[in-house]
Design goal:
alpha/beta
Length: 192
Amino acid sequence: MKVIGISGSPRKDGNTEILVREALKPFYEKGWEVTEFFLSSKTIKPCTGCETCKETGTCVIKGDDMEFLISEFEECDAVVIGSPAYYRNVTAQLKALFDRSFVFIDRKILAGKLGGAIAVGRGEGGGQSLVLSIIHNYYLSMGALCVPCEINGLSARADKPGDILKQEKRLRQARILGENIIKYAEMMYRSR
């Protein structure tokens, strides 16, 4: 079994990356193959809207990390995506990844796979609920199945780098998200 953890944050080792790593711990413990795809160290160029991919099945944009991610998506069983709230939205880096996914929308490479969402914002109304909705909408558009944390996705409040490390409840919720995805994956595997 394979999971991809994606952090949409441009900040290396920031609160979003910390929570995504925490959500991935149960997968490591269960022996899953884990790919950490953190946009703080990756490059996804923005989509130009040329729609050449609709005719050819491939993207004309080359020289970034999207081709690697597509091959990872094809092989994975689950995805965890986290993003800080930037102006009540996902980051530009994650939005570029979402837009570039148009290349495989007809192939449905995420169809039936499991997805979890994490959002981090500065305050209680910092846009986390919108970010969770955007990530869940991405999953649904791709045919993936949204897995809840305790209620929905994981919504966290953190401002300064490392703030999330002082929030045991949020760290625990990230692990619960990972555990829930594993639980659903095991149920799906047994029913096949």
